[in-house]
Design brief:
The structure holds 2 protein chains of 2 kinds.
Chain A: H1 2-15, H2 17-53, E1 59-64, H3 83-92, E2 96-111, E3 114-123, H4 126-130, E4 135-138, H5 143-148, E5 152-155, H6 157-163, E6 173-176, E7 179-187, E8 202-206, H7 207-215, E9 222-227, H8 233-247, E10 258-262, H9 263-306, H10 308-316, H11 321-358, H12 366-392, H13 396-401
Parallel strand pairs in A: 3-8, 5-7
Antiparallel strand pairs in A: 1-9, 1-10, 2-3, 2-6, 2-9, 4-7, 5-8, 6-7
Chain B: E1 5-16, E2 23-34, E3 38-42, H1 49-56, E4 64-69, E5 72-73, H2 79-89, E6 90-93, H3 105-116, H4 120-133, H5 149-161, E7 167-171, H6 179-196, E8 199-203, H7 207-210, E9 215-220, E10 223-229
Parallel strand pairs in B: 3-8, 3-9, 6-7, 7-8
Antiparallel strand pairs in B: 1-2, 1-4, 4-5, 9-10
Helix pairs in contact in B: 3-4, 3-5, 4-5, 5-6
The chains are: A alpha+beta, B alpha/beta.
Chain lengths: ~400, ~230
């Protein structure tokens, strides 16, 4: 009986192709919007997560000031961290893999007749652990080099390619601004960063070298802390905050004059825009689905009226109320599911095209596709019920007389 | 001819409206029809013959009296119970054929079997058999639009008898047909009555057609005015 009802429904849709398609439009648009938005949103999140995780695993970033990216705001205590901060953190924090101070500025590299613009970071050897850098050649700084502030540096792949290719850069001397230094290591490439930046366009020098020869001060604007495991992140964050408050003599009840963030916070900040957009478009999609449902109800009512005589015949020859109800419910269900399937395909297509242009990965979510399919079915059943019941309750005598 | 009452009306009433607008479509009708009879029901419009047919066909219920079908009181059955009764024991033929459009002859004939839950192959076999019985061999896959009126009515008769009903109810089955076609339909009904012992109850306003029946019941103003048996030829 269900199979017969299904065949009849297909037949009925095929007899009114244009009408069926127009009816489905609301559901198609609603489902397509949801699928496209969620797929693009998931892709964005995945890309941001992947990019940020290249910065280092279980990474916390401590910075002075309260704003997201570095110091800002008048009247704030924007004092940088210093060597003592790093020493104290290293002495007191547990559950960490690496703690690295870092200070960064733009600089021009000179080698022979070639110039290259890059960013220089002053830090110590734990930096490479904290940010998950591995070495293509050479070695990190020795403790002696860090202590004495030797003129040595480690370069990224892009710098190596730009200034030295096809030669081997190890052992060569280049200038960072006015400072000449020996290249002792080359990093493995990481590729593009979360902000579209080239992470491999970098030069790393010992902190003391940076402070004495490039910056002329001892400020440390950033401290990277790598927690041993992701489970350690909350405790390490809390302890870091506690230690920093002690160092900066912040009394109880006073606000922090620094921030400690982990990657998940940064990711959620960066994806909040796309989350908001997804929410808004989901609301629009919801309205579209509602309109689609009403469209189905409307067309089913038309169909019931048009086929009153047919219903009368069916009832006269012994169709039960439930059998007629089932027939029209299945028809509404088939219509709605067709809309859902078309919408899913369309939405995935749109997400694929958008993802191609936005260079984000295509991440179709099986759960949202299943949900969209079931939801469109539910719309069919929900909005099809009233017309189907009307059909089932027709009086066979009146229905047979209907012209 | 007539045996113990197979179908019986006991003081059957059908009233519509109330107060001044009260209409007595059937004003207490007694009627007994035996198994295997071929009955013609005649009468002017508004005489109650269509109401009587609807009640006989379990499409409608009386407002008073009792309707006994094969010894069982079916007066106050619910919608679905009446639908089951129609499905299992009754066959309908209408003036306007009432075939499903854009549906082949065989599919139309299969329809009542679908609601009975008959398996597909058996359904197809029985439908084709019924189609051959009404003399439309070779028209299996014609749609109503591709068939003449007489042929459509034959398909409708095939649909009515495919379930092997006890009673065939025909409401002006020749109303839309010319004389030659009408005679063919009547001969078919007579043959079904003779060969299969099918009880046939037919509403008609044409005496020519009524003459094919063994018995003619004439309704006037909600009463039976006359009930005559055909003299043996």
């Amino acid at each position: 009986m269900l199979w017969e009802a299904f065949k009849l429904a297909i037949l009925s849709v095929r007899r009114n192709v244009l009408r069926s398609i127009l009816t489905l439009l609301g559901i198609v648009i609603g489902v397509a919007a949801v699928i496209a938005m969620v797929t693009v949103g998931d892709g964005t999140t995945q890309k941001v997560t992947e990019d940020l995780s290249k910065l280092g695993s279980n990474l916390l970033i401590a910075q002075p000031g309260r704003s997201m990216f570095g110091p800002g705001g008048a009247g704030q205590d924007n004092r940088s961290f210093d060597d003592r901060t790093v020493v104290k953190l290293r002495n007191e924090l547990t559950g960490v893999r690496a703690i690295a101070p870092a200070t960064t500025r733009a600089a021009t590299l000179v080698y022979g007749s070639l110039n290259y613009a890059t960013t220089v970071t002053g830090t110590d050897s734990q930096f490479f652990t904290a940010q998950d850098w591995t070495f293509a050649a050479g070695r990190p700084f020795s403790d002696g080099e860090v202590r004495s502030g030797s003129a040595v540096c480690v370069i990224g792949k892009s710098v190596s390619d730009a200034l030295f290719a096809p030669d081997e850069p190890l052992g060569k001397k280049m200038r960072i601004g006015n400072v000449s230094c020996d290249i002792i290591g080359v990093l493995d490439p990481k590729g593009q960063g979360a902000f579209g930046n080239d992470q491999d366009n970098t030069v790393v020098v010992p902190l003391r070298t940076y402070q004495r020869r490039l910056a002329g001060n001892t400020r440390i604007p950033t401290i990277y802390i790598s927690a041993a495991t992701s489970d350690d992140i909350p405790a390490v964050t809390a302890n870091t905050e506690q230690i920093l408050r002690e160092i900066r003599r912040i009394g109880p009840g006073q606000d922090d004059t620094f921030t400690v963030r982990d990657m998940s916070q940064i990711i959620s900040t960066m994806t909040s825009t796309s989350t908001l957009l997804t929410g808004l478009l989901s609301a629009v999609a919801g309205v579209s689905l509602l309109v689609g449902g009403i469209g189905i109800m409307n067309i089913m009512l038309v169909s019931v009226t048009e086929r009153t005589r047919e219903i009368g015949i069916r009832l006269a020859i012994g169709a039960l109320e439930l059998q007629v109800l089932t027939q029209f419910l299945v028809e509404a269900l088939v219509l709605a599911l067709m809309g859902g399937v078309i919408g899913i395909i369309l939405g995935l297509g749109l997400a694929g095209i958008a993802g191609h242009f936005m260079t984000i990965p295509f991440v179709p979510s099986l759960s949202i596709i299943t949900l969209a399919f079931l939801f469109s079915g539910a719309i069919g059943l929900g909005f099809g019920f009233f017309p189907a019941r009307r059909a089932a309750r027709l009086d066979p005598i009146d229905a047979l007389r209907h012209e | 001819m007539s045996t113990a009452p197979f179908i019986a009306f006991e003081r059957v009433q059908k009233l519509y409206g109330e107060g001044a607008g009260l209409v007595r479509a059937l004003a207490g009708v007694d009627l007994a029809i035996g198994r295997g009879e071929f009955v013609a029901i005649m009468g002017p419009s508004g005489s109650g013959k269509s109401t009587a047919m609807n009640i006989l066909g379990c499409l409608d219920t009386p407002t008073g009296g009792r309707y006994l079908f094969a010894g069982a009181d079916v007066t106050s059955l619910g919608r679905d119970e009446r639908a089951l009764l129609r499905r299992n024991f009754l066959g309908f033929v209408f003036q306007g054929y009432n075939l499903l459009a854009r549906t082949t002859a065989v599919e139309n004939i299969e329809l009542p079997l679908i609601y009975r839950g008959t398996p597909r192959l058996e359904r197809r076999e029985r439908a084709i058999e019924a189609l051959h019985l009404v003399g439309l061999k070779g028209r299996e896959h014609h749609t109503p639009a591709q068939l003449s009126g007489g042929q459509q009515q034959r398909v409708a008769i095939a649909r009515a008898i495919v379930t092997d009903p006890l009673v065939l109810l025909a409401d002006e089955p020749t109303g839309n047909l010319d004389t030659a076609r009408s005679h063919e339909i009547m001969e078919l009904l007579t043959r079904l009555n003779d060969e299969r012992g099918l009880t046939v109850i037919m509403v008609t306003h044409e005496p020519d057609m009524a003459a094919f029946a063994c018995r003619t019941i004439r309704f006037v103003d909600g009463h039976i005015e006359s009930d005559t048996l055909r003299e043996a030829a």
